[in-house]
Amino acid sequence: MSFFAVSNGAALKFETQGQEIVAQISGPVSTVQATEFGSDKPATWRDGSPKLKALVPLTTEAGESKTLHVPAGSLLQKAIGAALAEAGASDLEVGGVLGVTWTGWGQGKNPANPPKSWSARYITAADVAAQAA
């Protein structure tokens, strides 16, 4: 994705535990520096290196343009990685279909603010095209 390209969809939000969102990947995934929660300040690790996140452009089943934000090292990244491995894919592809479900709460360093846990499934672009044929 071009350095100057911008995300064209609002952030994908999960309102309730157990909610699954299935959407087609509508453009290349980009990697950007994350920001501190509640601010525009760039987030960094203790050593000063940038915290990164992937922006996945999606088109939902309702035809809406959305962007899935996937923080590096998150349980969401791990769930998507497992779905890719299960599908025999090395990365998300334009035209592929990603399904993500908020399954509950994971274990974190701060019990008062645990991370969300996720499951994911992925259908490669080639498999989507074969199903449509």
UniProtKB/TrEMBL annotation:
Q: What is this protein called?
A: Uncharacterized protein
